[in-house]
Specification:
By secondary structure, the protein is mainly beta. The chain has 2 domains: 85 residues, no CATH class; 215 residues, no CATH class. It is built from 1 helix and 32 strands. Strands 7-4-24-22-20-17-14 form a 7-stranded parallel β-sheet, with no helix packed on it. A 6-stranded parallel beta barrel has the order 3-6-10-5-25-23. A 5-stranded antiparallel β-sheet has the order 2-31-32-29-28, with no helix packed on it.
């Protein structure tokens, strides 16, 4: 634990003992950074045919607020965000007042980095499974890779524990037929499921279907009538809803978790929007306050080598 004065860079060393053990799954979660603060994040626009229900924040950038349609937006008096009867959360656009534009620029950059991370994972546990048709399958944790499209028309079950990770690398489109569902079993968490989709059409989720996990799409995400998502819709193009429910997932316990409180005797809470860069051994999270205590929960012993404040983010380096 270390109290940080945000007006200076503090170099320190803290040894933290592991308090839990990682599972046997070799894959690490994909770091979302600022994109992890959004239930829906898109570059070109977000639209809905009412009435949808989104639990979590939404954002568009570099598109302006006029590219968020169907939500009946009401601009807050701060002019930094809007609200909507269809959104339990805040709605952000690149043409709102500061600091919203820079926050969104960072979030979109983090979204693209997360996509690249997921797409760049190597040594898959399975390739071309079902030649792209995974209908009715039960999938254990791991990395799955396809050189073409992926689809399913009956339920797909992801069976594993709460620390297990699934990453699906899909070179084509992802199509979920009507009434099909992704089912989690054994304590698996939606926040540890990542669908990386490179196809030119993108992601199409059919009527009354249900998907669990984080969708990282290079192109559009289209959700048909009555479908629901427990996860995040992160598109480098646009997201289209038709009377859907989108609920951001609970933050899973990962290999490292940064928590914060304004008093050392207070309750430490999860710091949202974390991005862990395992290559350079750093944890980045939005700054929580001008005077804050931070606590890191780690699954292995580690040494904290420094703190910096960069562009409103706390950056913790470790060994």
């Amino acid at each position: 634990m270390k109290k940080i004065n945000f007006t200076a860079i503090i170099m320190t060393t803290i040894i933290l003992s592991g308090i839990t053990a990682m599972g046997g799954n070799p894959e690490l979660p994909v770091g979302l950074g600022g994109a992890g603060n959004f239930a829906i994040l898109a570059k070109s626009g977000i639209s809905t045919v009412p009435t949808s229900q989104v639990t979590g924040d939404m954002g568009v950038s570099p598109a302006a607020a006029t590219y968020i349609t169907g939500f009946s937006l009401t601009l807050d008096s701060t002019t930094t965000f809007s609200t909507s009867p269809q959104v339990v959360g805040k709605i952000y656009a690149s043409d709102y007042s500061a600091p919203t534009p820079s926050t969104l620029t960072t979030a979109v950059s983090n979204m693209e980095t997360a996509y690249t991370d997921a797409a760049g994972r190597t040594v898959p546990d399975d390739t071309e499974l079902g030649t792209g048709n995974i209908s009715g399958m039960t999938l254990s944790p791991g990395l799955y890779k396809w050189s073409s499209a992926v689809s399913f028309n009956t339920d797909v079950t992801l069976a594993g524990g709460p620390d297990d990770v699934w990453i699906f690398q899909i070179a084509g489109n992802l199509t979920v037929s009507g009434s099909a569902a992704v089912v989690l079993s054994g304590g698996a968490q939606a926040g540890n499921v990542f669908w990386q989709v490179a196809g030119g059409v993108g992601v199409e989720i059919g009527d009354s279907s249900h998907v669990e996990g984080i969708i990282l799409a290079q192109n559009a995400i289209t959700i048909q009538s009555g479908a629901s998502i427990n996860g995040r819709l992160l598109s480098q193009k646009e997201v289209t809803l038709i009377s859907n429910e989108v609920t951001e997932p609970a933050d899973p316990a990962g290999a490292m978790v940064l928590r914060s409180a304004d008093e050392v005797s207070g309750t430490f809470t999860y710091t949202s929007g974390q991005f862990i860069n395992f290559a350079i051994q750093s944890i980045t999270a939005p700054q929580q306050g001008t005077n804050q205590f931070y606590l890191i929960r780690a699954d292995t012993a580690m040494t904290i080598t420094g703190f910096t404040i960069t562009n409103g983010n706390v950056v913790v380096t470790y060994q």
